[in-house]
Design goal:
This protein is mainly β. It has one helix at 3-14; strands spanning 18-20, 29-34, 38-43, 49-54, 58-70, 76-78, 80-82, 86-91, 96-109, 114-116. The strands form two sheets. It has a six-stranded antiparallel β-barrel. A two-stranded antiparallel ribbon has the order 1-7.
Length: 131
């Protein structure tokens, strides 16, 4: 995907909203449902440190870094979780980066509220429909 196409895709998906990780206070919990797995995260500080559990590689709670999300390439949207993007997880113990499958749903959980992003089923998006 060239840069122009990536910018257009990002603008289009921004209309559906996302999670700006920088704005979340420590202690905030997230549930991220991807195509293949459910991930549970808890923000540990005002940086990008999280406790994470879920998916194939994180059966136990593991401290990781979440730099942001990608559309599957090398261009990352820093501090962002977005619809149909892939969460980028840096695991210091493994010394490498893991990308999840595409994000389908996300929920923010704090001591005083829960908020679920109401994203459409990917099958209902016009670019995924057969013409």
């Amino acid at each position: 995907m060239d840069l122009e196409a990536l910018v257009e895709l990002s603008k289009e998906r921004d209309k559906l909203g996302g999670i700006n990780l920088e704005k979340l206070p420590p202690g905030t919990k997230l549930e991220i449902q991807t195509v293949n797995s459910l991930y549970r995260l808890e923000k540990l500080d005002y940086g990008n440190r999280y406790n994470l559990q879920g998916g194939e590689y994180f059966q136990q709670v593991t401290e990781v870094r979440i730099p942001g999300s990608t559309y599957g390439g090398t261009t990352i949207r820093v501090n962002w979780i977005g619809y149909l993007m892939r969460l980028e997880i840096y695991d210091p113990a493994r010394g490498g980066v893991i990308h999840t499958s595409s994000i389908r749903q996300a929920k923010i959980i704090t001591p005083t509220y829960e908020y679920s992003l109401d994203w459409p089923d990917p099958e209902d998006i016009s670019e995924n429909k057969a013409e």
